[in-house]
Amino acid sequence: xxxxxxxxxxxxxxxxxxxxxxxxxxxxxxxxxxxxxxxxxxxxxxxxxxxxxxxxxxxxxxxxxxxxxxxxxxxxxxxxxxxxxxxxxxxxxxxxxxxxxxxxxxxxxxxxxxxxxxxxxxxxxxxxxxxxxxxxxxxxxxxxxxxxxxxxxxxxxxxxxxxxxxxxxxxxxxxxxxxxxxxxxxxxxxxxxxxxxxxxxxxxxxxxxxxxxxx
Length: 215
Hints:
Layout: E1 5-7, E2 10-13, E3 20-24, E4 46-56, E5 59-73, E6 80-95, E7 98-104, E8 108-110, E9 116-117, E10 126-127, E11 130-131, E12 152-154, E13 158-162, E14 170-172, E15 180-188, E16 203-210
Antiparallel strand pairs: 1-14, 2-13, 3-4, 3-12, 4-5, 5-6, 6-7, 6-8, 6-15, 9-13, 10-11, 15-16
């Protein structure tokens, strides 16, 4: 059905101290679920600003930093606003101890919102040799439940999930692609536009074995 495509599902979790939040410079507001994006299908790119929160007494102060861009994604299965260049997917082949990029996808844009929350007794919430979930500082801080033009983001302890059947969630294997062992690699914010407390965990890699699919 999808010849030569390696379909990929990805979940991106926020395990930092504060929410990831971005918003455009425009005064347009609303959420995709209430129809606001229908007025913005011109594919115009809006500049984004990342909001950084700092706890001050009983409240929060905030700072804004110019980051990436946001636009209306018109591809099937989307029809809402996406943050540009959010993830890059690639296949690595080790050859004589050196990394060779065997296949690389386009930088894929995402709608950033909290699809679900980490649960500290779930095996999928275990990484960096520890569980993440309700015991995290500031757990659930930030509310991002739609592909809104007003703001997008991922709550503390939340994750943004894209299934393998979404548009763009694949690597197109070139003709003559050889079977064998590869390293699947994902990089969040490959252009390094966003502010984070720890960028070292923005790359995830895993070994996979690719064989020719039967038609």
